[in-house]
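Limitations

Structures in this collection are predictions, not experimental determinations, and the ligand pose is part of the prediction. Treat each record accordingly. The example that follows, with magnesium ion as the small molecule, is included so readers can see exactly what is and is not provided: the inputs are given verbatim, and the output is the predicted complex.
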Amino acid sequence: MIQLEKIQVKFNPDTPLETIALKAIDLTIPEGQFVTVIGSNGAGKSTLLNVLSGDIIPQQGRVLIGDRDVTHWQTARRSQWVARVFQNPLAGSCPDLSVEENLALAYRRGKERRLQPALNHRLREMFREKLASLGLGLEKRLRDRMGLLSGGQRQAVSLLMSTLSSHQILLLDEHTAALDPKTAAYILQLTQQIVAERNLTTLMVTHSMGQALELGTRTLMLHEGKIIFDIQDKARSGLKVGDLLDLFHQQQQENLADDALLLG
Ligand SMILES: Nc1ncnc2c1ncn2[C@@H]1O[C@H](COP(=O)(O)OP(=O)(O)OP(=O)(O)O)[C@@H](O)[C@H]1O
Ligand SMILES: [Mg+2]
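Predicted complex:
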């Protein structure tokens, strides 16, 4: 389970550039839930994922993973549980290391030093098998530099990396946005398969409202650092993209009305 309690993130505090990216966010996500996250540019979606990964430490509030308070844990310490795939296929893996070296790094994460195997025959065979299961022919490219793979191939390997360690949480930040439609569809299907097989607690940021409603069982919409809707299960299953847009516009009107009241 993931719990965020009263999370506040400010950039450039006490300067004219101050931005409050997250405003007192409370959120509980049960183990194994797949949550999609939508919202306009600058709404705070990536910041929310950064707070979970440890890339940003909030000024206020607490982050709990399971029953551990990880608020002040750095990214490396959390990475045994938290895997991430970014929008840019170049992020999240090392372009100068080979495919098998990248996989070995992911495999060793969180394991005790003395138990770390070097890249041996057994590991190589395991990687070869897992790569073959992707159906992209990558099992023949174990020794190629990661930087030589296409964007879609790299995203597939990044997803595979999230299955090699004791990860419980998967954070996806527009991870199909840079891919052509066919490859994006493949990566989404692979995402669903991996999430289901490993019962990963997943947050997926997307700008596609269709994707947001199709995948997972819960959708959050962020706006100006706040969660403005949180819809799940039955309430979500009948929703169409048009309904989501209407809800968004309705919420914006309400915000404007609130602002007018405050000013008036
Ligand atoms: N490192 C930073 N320094 C200063 N301001 C930042 C920083 N990172 C984010 N912000 C600001 O915080 C707010 C939220 O940004 P965030 O990246 O979380 O938005 P987002 O919802 O992911 O948007 P997008 O859809 O464009 O990716 C924005 O106003 C952004 O400009
Ligand atoms: Mg973002």
